[in-house]
Design goal:
The chain is mainly alpha-helical and about 600 residues long. It is about 65% helix and about 0% strand.
């Protein structure tokens, strides 16, 4: 780098010639830099290693870099900073965001801004930086990373404090442009509707302004606005206690008046405006409604609506004491324009009738002259103003020519022509009114059809949800029934095993004398194993009774209301030692001799 020093400048001024300089490698190209920049960069380009600044020192030299580099340094160690210092940094970060490239914004800065949404102190400043980044990045970054993070942190559902929704509303247009149609329908537009229902007046006012701007600039669909948001706006106008919010609702209707159909104006908007005129007599509300009526009068195709709906509604306002002189003059100007509109329409109608009358009179005079050539035809002229001393006209007696009755019947009279023309105009007016009524009926029918389809869709979804819940309940009950059947089957199988063991033991006791010692040991071991298996079984309480095989009818049966293990250890049976093994005592005396008959 070749620089120009003060010494070189002095030599050039003395000699008057520009000194030719060569670079380090012999090139004659010269590059001049500012002296302030040269003094700052000089420590980095020193030829001597001792005097040259190291890379680490250059990185820490604040005078060599701008705010964007300092911000990146702070971001690298932002996790070690306290929350208040991070919030102050986020407030200043928004000024340097346009200086970064897309990669740095998407991969480095967003990575630290999104986690800051969790902290209450840093949430507002971080959200403002994220919304500013949305304006700098392509739309794909919004759908892929930014919108899911905002949804996860419930940014669109937080209405308290009001700073959060106000901040989102200030970037509403960019949010609509960066999101897809499904994201608008499911996230962005429901957020705007919830802002209209907010309890904070400032949020309602800002949402009303964004709504009318979205409709007029065509980034908010009019169909969604008319079906979902217009009823909410009219209800706010009726029920809000804040006068400024009511004025904003009327202003929103005024700015979007050209988009409404005639049936929307007559069925929805005008009744609400009439109600407001009766409830709120303040001057700002009256003038706002007057301006809306002025625009509605231009929207109506027939002056009959202006004469029968708008003028009778505004007539009582003329005597309101709340109007100032300026407001009264403005109101009377608008009111007189409406009356002039009606008068011009009626004058045009009567002019057409008069033109038809003159045309019929001309036709009759021509036909009469053709049939009576001796009669002078006088031209039809407009009546002139009367003179001061008019002279009487000279009487002219035309020759009388008798006309046959057939000729008089062939040509219509002037009254008949006027009547026919009036009939044609009346038929045309009726046809126009009929077409307009059919159009209004068709629009109402389409609106009703859309509402019915939406209701049917909601009913179908509700039925599907009920059917799914019913199927889930049936599956649960079926699984429970099968589990109970399996448990009952296991319990009954254990009871069967228990009964078999009791019978086998009693049979063994009957023929105990005939068994040898080895069989006794095997049977005792088998019976003990079966008793152990019954102790491990779950406790069941069957509803039937089991009688002892040696109990007679006089003895009371013992219900088996205990577990199989408890039944084996019942106190009803006692054991006595006989020949080295246990013998149950069944409640009767043991025979005294072997010759006595055993009971089987």
């Amino acid at each position: 780098m070749i620089t120009q020093t003060p010494i070189d400048e002095a030599e050039e001024q003395k000699s008057g010639k520009k000194k030719k300089r060569k670079g380090r490698f012999g090139h004659s190209d010269q590059l001049y830099v500012d002296m302030d920049l040269y003094n700052k960069v000089k420590p980095l380009i020193e030829f001597n290693d001792r005097n040259r600044m190291a890379a680490k020192g250059a990185y820490r030299a604040n005078e060599l870099f701008g705010d964007e580099v300092k911000a990146l340094r702070f971001i690298d160690k932002i996790n070690t900073k306290p929350a208040t210092e991070r919030a102050q940094f986020f407030v200043k970060l928004i000024t340097v965001l346009p200086k970064y490239s897309e990669n740095i914004l998407a991969q480095k800065i967003l990575k630290y801004l999104i986690p800051a949404l969790v902290h209450p102190i840093c949430r507002e400043a971080a959200l403002q930086n994220i919304l500013e980044i949305i304006t700098l990045l392509p739309a794909r970054h919004f759908s892929n990373s930014i919108l899911p993070a905002l949804q996860q942190n419930e940014i669109f559902t937080r209405m308290d404090p009001p700073k959060m929704p106000l901040l989102l509303l200030s970037y509403f247009r960019k949010l609509m442009e960066a999101s897809t149609e499904s994201e608008q329908k499911n996230i962005i537009l429901p957020f705007l509707s919830s802002c209209l229902d907010s309890s904070h007046p400032e949020v309602q006012i800002d949402s009303l302004n964004q709504t009318c701007m979205g409709v007029t600039n065509n980034y908010l669909p009019y169909a969604y606005y008319k079906e979902y948001m217009l009823p909410t706006i009219l209800e706010i106008a009726r029920s809000t206690p804040e006068q400024i919010v009511r004025q904003c609702t009327i202003n929103c209707i005024y700015k979007t008046i050209e988009y409404y159909e005639v049936y929307v104006l007559t069925d929805s908007i005008i009744p609400v405006l009439k109600y407001l005129l009766n409830v709120d007599k303040s001057s700002p509300v009256i003038m706002a409604i007057t301006y809306v009526f002025e625009q509605i009068a231009k929207q109506f195709n027939q002056v009959e609506d202006v004469a029968t709906i708008l003028i009778p509604t505004l007539a009582p306002v003329m005597v309101e004491p709340t109007l100032s002189i300026d407001n009264f003059n403005e109101f009377m100007k608008i009111f007189q324009n409406m009356i002039t509109q009606v008068a011009q329409s009626r004058n045009a109608y009567y002019s057409e009738l008069k033109a038809a009358e003159i045309s019929a009179r001309t036709v009759n005079s021509k036909e009469e002259a053709k049939n009576n050539p001796f009669k002078k035809s006088e031209p039809i002229r407009r009546p002139s103003p009367p003179a001061k001393k008019p002279s009487p006209p000279r009487p002219v007696t035309p020759p009388i020519v008798e006309q046959s009755s057939n000729d008089q019947d062939d040509h219509p009279t002037m009254e008949q022509s006027i009547h026919e023309k009036e009939e044609e105009l009346r038929i045309a007016a009726d046809a126009s009114a009929k077409r307009q009524a059919e159009e209004v009926a068709r629009q109402r029918k389409e609106h009703q059809t859309r509402m019915e389809e939406a209701a049917r869709e909601e009913e179908r979804q509700r039925q599907e949800e009920e059917a799914a819940r019913k199927r889930e309940m049936d599956l649960h009950l079926e699984a429970q029934r099968r589990r109970e059947e399996r448990e009952n089957a296991e319990s009954l199988s254990l009871l069967d095993k228990l009964e078999q063991a009791q019978l086998m033991r009693m049979k063994f006791m009957d023929g105990v004398d005939e068994k040898d010692d080895e069989e006794k040991d095997n049977f005792d071991q088998l019976f003990d194993n079966m008793a152990d298996s019954t102790q491990e079984a779950p406790s069941v309480k069957p509803s039937f009774d089991i009688k002892h095989p040696f109990d007679d009818d006089s003895t009371t049966s013992t219900p088996l209301d205990t577990t199989p293990a408890e039944f084996l250890q019942s106190p009803k049976t006692s054991t006595t030692k006989s020949d080295g093994f246990a013998m149950p005592d069944f409640g009767f005396d043991e025979p005294t001799s072997d010759k006595e008959t055993r009971v089987t």
